[in-house]
Protein: Diguanylate cyclase (GGDEF) domain-containing protein
Organism: Blastococcus aurantiacus
Amino acid sequence: LLAAADSGGVASYHPVLDQQSLRRLQLGTEIEQAMADGQISVVFQPIIDAQTSDIVSVETLVRWAHPRYGSIPPDDFIHLAEQIGRIGAVTDHVLDLALARCRRWLDQDIALSVAVNLSVHCLTEPDLLSRVRSALQRHGVPGELLTLELTEGSVVDDSVRDSTVLADLHDLGLRLSMDDFGTGYSSLSQLRQLPIDEVKIDKSFVLGMSTSQGESFIARSIIELAHNLGLRVVAEGVEDEMTRNLLAEMGCDKLQGFLVSRPLPDDRLENWLLARTGVRTASPGAAHRRL
Ligand code: C2E
Ligand code: MG
Ligand code: MG
Ligand code: MG
């Protein structure tokens, strides 16, 4: 039990279960119930067109409001969920909330696409394709309105590269995005080999752009490379005007970051959209609008 809850592939044994391990162990056992109780929910972060500033999409980001520990960020429980084999359930939960949100917009004739993060481990789940397909069908959302953001590490795996899972997902009409591009095991050839539509420049580069020429150069290189391969480019972590202007001038397609908006809970997203576009997406009367 101790070894299973430990991180990494190599089991290590500690004489005493420290406070942190104990908490992780406990959190792991609580994930399923936390989803059922609504403790695990999502926030949405707008993504805008870099040239026109129109909102083009929202990224769905998971949140856990724990009754005793307070707000637990995804970086503290996604990895845990992967290790204990619960990441598939978390993905289904997030996908469900994202597509339900998308459906409510569709009911008001608003076609706003949603992005959902897809972890490494999910790509090797044999039923992933059928789960994504049935989630789309259940909510009546066309695949075109869904983007799955893959962390870069996920596609390096040989079994994933050799399987048809990405092509099959792509055939559902959805878009595939390579998240956190430029970190980890970057492989440029994969961008060409895999059915990827989009890359997201990792925020570690974007955050440094206003102060570092080196980071700007990296961003520019990624944009040029991606465009030469026919891919769209999203920059995440845009926090200031200077960075926004630099990216727009470099031809980056879409922007996401605190400058545009922080990730917002559903009701605050509604207000943000209303203030931004004048479209009251919560009211049933807003027919035939496109954001
Ligand atoms: P990510 O997919 O790269 O998401 C972007 C992260 O950057 C989010 O952190 C977001 O809040 C943050 N961010 C956005 N704009 C800015 C900015 O301008 N400045 C700064 N400093 N940060 C910004 P968050 O929500 O804590 O999520 C962290 C990571 O957890 C995500 O990185 C993603 O890899 C993972 N994650 C989140 N939700 C899910 C999920 O539903 N499933 C899976 N598998 N992973 C998820
Ligand atoms: Mg992401
Ligand atoms: Mg990212
Ligand atoms: Mg990330």
Notes: Residues 115 and 147 are 4 Å apart (CA to CA). Residues 179-180, 200, 202, 236 surround magnesium ion (ligand 3) (CB under 6 Å). The radius of gyration is 20 Å.
